[in-house]
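User: Last request for today: this protein with SN-glycerol-3-phosphate, please.
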Amino acid sequence: MKFFVDTADVDDIRELNALGLVDGVTTNPSLILKSGRDIIEVTKEICGIVDGPVSAEVAATEYDQMMKEAAVLGDIADNICIKLPLTLDGLKACKSLTDAGHKTNVTLCFSANQALLAAKAGATYISPFVGRVDDIGTDGMDLIQEIRTIYDNYDFKTEILVASIRSVSHVKIAALIGADVSTIPPSTLRALVKHPLTDKGLAAFLADWEKTGQDIAG
Ligand code: G3P
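Assistant: Here's the final one, the structure of the complex with SN-glycerol-3-phosphate:
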C-alpha cells in the first residue's frame, strides 16, 4: 500500500520524505488555508520535494471553470494530480482531464455508487473519506471493503485512496482490505512506528549494553 501524506505543510513533507515514507501528497482547500500560503506557490514547492503525485484541488463547482482551474494547476509541475469533487460537473471534468492524459483524484466520496461513477469517469484515484463516514455513526472501513469488491468485480483500474484517516487503526484496516493508497496526516504517519513493547525492549537492551562496557564504533 502506498503512503501519501495529507498536508500542505512543507516542513512535515520534507521530514517524512527524507524517511522514505512519502509516495505522494494530497492537499485540499482546508489544508491550503491551514498552511497560510498561496496555493500555486506552496503546491510548486511540494512538487519539488516529492517525486510522486501531488493532488491539487479545483475550487470551482461548474465544469468550464473547473477546466480553467485544472489548466492552471496542471501547469505547476509534471507530478500534479487534479483533484475534483464528486459531482456531475466534477465527473465530467474527470473524464475530460483523464482523456487529455492528466492524473485525476475524485474526492469527497461517501458511497460505493459514487466510487463506481468515478471509476467509470476514468479517475486515477477515488478518495473515500473514512473518518467523516465514522463521524455519522457508520463504519468508514465498510465503505472501503465495498469499493474494493466492486472495483475487483469489474477490474477497474482506479486506485482506492483512503482519505480522512484519523487513526493508526484506519491505516491497518485499509492495508488488510487491500486499498491501494492511504493518505495520512503527518502526526498519524509518525504514530505508526510507536509500540510500548518496542520502547520497553529498547530500554532493556540499552541498560544491558551499558553494563558490557563495550563501544561498537570506537
Ligand atoms: O484526506 C481528506 C482529509 O484532509 C479530510 O480529513 O479529518 O477533515 O475529515 P478530515
